[in-house]
Amino acid sequence: MNKFAYLVAASALAVSAFGQASINLNNRGLALVNDASGKPLTGTSFVAQVWYGASASSLTSSFAPSPFRVATTTSPGSWNPGAAGGPGAIATLAGIAPGSTVTLQVAVWDSSIAGVGAAQALAKAPGTGLSETFTYTTSADPLAIPGGMENLKSFNLVGGGTVIPEPTTIALGALGAAALLWRRRK
Amino acid sequence: MNTKSLLLAAVVAAVGAVSGSAQVTSQNIVGYVRLSLAKGNNLIGNQLNNGNNAIGTVLNVPDGTAVYKFTGGKYVANSYVDGAWDAPAMTLPPGDGFFINVPAATTITLIGEVSLSNSKALAAGFNLLSVPVPLAGGLTDAAAGGLTAVEGDVVYQWTGTGFAAKEFVDGEWAPSAPTVKVGEGFFLKGAARTYTRNFSVN
C-alpha cells in the first residue's frame, strides 16, 4: 500500500471511529416472513420489530416496528421500515461501533389484536413469529451503504391459533357467561 | 454507470418582454440526460431542475429500485415498491449526488431545465454531490465542474464495486485530477464551504 492509499484509509477510519454503526432494516429481496401456512405475509396490520445487541444473550435494544406491505404488494413477505411511523430504512445501532458485529432477531405480530405485541412474539405465542438470531458485521467504511438483513433466514408465524384474546375480551366473555347462568337460575 | 447518451437536446429559448423602453431577456435551457444504469448500485446525480425536484417527478424507475442519499454523515434510503416511493417527499435537486440501486440494468431519462445559478453549502467531511449542470470534464475546471479545490480535499468516485480516491495535496491532485461524466455523482471530503457553479449562455 503506498503513502496515498494509507492517507485515504486513515482518514476514512478516523471519521468512522467517532460514529455509531448503521443498518439497513429492509428485508425486501432477502429472506421473507411467511404466515403459518408458508405463504409470504402481507397486510399492514402485521409489524416486524428488529431487536439487537452485542450477542444473542443481550438482545435488549430494538427499533420501532415496521408494517408489512399491502395485500396487493409485489414484495410479499417483506416489511417496510420506511413507512410512516417506522424506524426508517437506514437506522443507527445505538452503542454499536462501526466495524463490529451485532446480533439480531426479528419479532412479528399482528398489531390489530389488542394485547399482542413484542412480548408475545418473543415468547413465540400462536399467531406471532420470531426469527432465529443472526449476525451482521457493520462496516467501518463511512461511504459503504449499510446492509443488515442478509443473514436473516425466512421464517413462519407460529401456527395453532391466530388470535390471542385480550384481557378485556376474556372479561367480557366471563361476564356474559355469568349473566347467562344467573338468568337460568332465575 | 455508463452515460449512453448525454444532453441530447438543449433548447435555448429566449423570451423577450418589453417593459417601457427596456427589453428584458431570460434564457431557458431545457433538455434531458439519459443514463444507462447497471444492475446494482450506480452513483449518479440529477443535473436538471424540473421544478420541485421531488423524487417521483425526477426518476422513472422499475419496481424494486432503491435510492440512497447521504445526509448528515449517514445514508438515507428510499425504495420504490408497488408503484410508489416510501418517502415521496425526498428531493433530488441539481448538485445532489445519490446512489441508485436497480434490480436489472435499465436506462433512465432525467428531464428539466439547466439551472443557471447554483450554490450549495458543503458540510465539513463527506458530501455526496454532482456537478449541478450537465457538463463533463475536469471537476475543478472552470468550464466543467467549476469546483474550487481546497488543500486536503479528497474526491471519491464510484468504480462499480468500490471507490477510487483522488486527493488535493500541496496544490496538486494525486494521483490525477478528477474528471466527471454527465450525470455522475461523487463524494467530496473536505472543509465546509460553498460550492458555486453558475452557468451562462453566450
Describe the SSE topology.
The complex is a heterodimer of chains A (186) and B (202).
Chain A: H1 3-18, E1 22-24, E2 33-34, E3 46-53, E4 61-62, E5 66-67, E6 90-92, E7 101-110, H2 118-122, E8 129-130, E9 134-137, E10 155-156, H3 167-185
Parallel strand pairs in A: 2-10
Antiparallel strand pairs in A: 1-6, 3-4, 3-5, 3-7, 7-8, 7-9
Chain B: E1 2-5, E2 10-19, E3 22-37, E4 40-45, H1 55-58, E5 65-71, E6 74-81, E7 84-85, E8 97-102, E9 106-113, E10 119-122, E11 125-130, E12 137-138, E13 154-158, E14 163-169, E15 172-174, E16 179-180, E17 185-190, E18 193-196
Antiparallel strand pairs in B: 1-3, 2-3, 3-9, 4-8, 5-6, 5-8, 6-7, 10-18, 11-17, 12-16, 13-14, 13-17, 14-15
Structural class of chain A: alpha+beta
Helix-strand pattern of chain B: EEEEHEEEEEEEEEEEEEE
| Count of structural domains of chain A | 1
Approximate helicity band of chain B: under 10%
- With helices defined by DSSP (H or I, 4 residues minimum), what is the helix count of chain A? 3
- Rg for CA atoms of chain A: 22 Å
- Report mean pLDDT of chain B, rounded to a whole number: 88
**How much of the residues of chain B is beta strand, in percent?**
over 45%
User: How many β-strand stretches of chain B?
Assistant: 18
Uncertain segments of chain A: 1-18
Largest beta-sheet details of chain B: 5 strands, antiparallel
Integer average pLDDT of chain A: 85
Q: Work out the helicity level of chain A.
A: 10-25%
Biggest interface, CB < 8 A:
A-B, 28 and 30 residues
Distance between the termini of chain B: 31 Å
SSE order of chain A: HEEEEEEEHEEEH
**Which strand order does the major sheet of chain B show?**
4-8-5-6-7
Shape of chain B: globular
Describe this structure in words.
The complex is a heterodimer of chains A (186) and B (202). Chain A has helices spanning 3-18, 118-122, 167-185, and strands at residues 22-24, 33-34, 46-53, 61-62, 66-67, 90-92, 101-110, 129-130, 134-137, 155-156. Chain A is of the alpha+beta class and 186 residues long. Chain A has one domain (3-160). In chain A, the strands form three sheets. In chain A, strands 3, 4, 5, 7, 8 and 9 form a six-stranded antiparallel sheet that branches. In chain A, a hairpin with a 7-residue loop joins strand 3 (46-53) and strand 4 (61-62). Chain A is elongated, with a radius of gyration of 22 Å. Chain B is mainly β and 202 residues long. Chain B is built from one helix and 18 strands. In chain B, strand 13 and strand 14 (163-169) form a beta hairpin. Residues 1-21 of chain B have low confidence and may be disordered. The A-B interface holds A 4, 7-8, 11, 15, 19, 22, 24, 26, 28-29, 69-70, 72-75, 80, 82-83, 88-90, 92, 142-143, 145-146 and B 41, 63-64, 66, 68, 73-79, 81-82, 86-87, 99, 101, 103, 125-126, 154, 156, 163, 165, 167, 174-175, 187, 189.
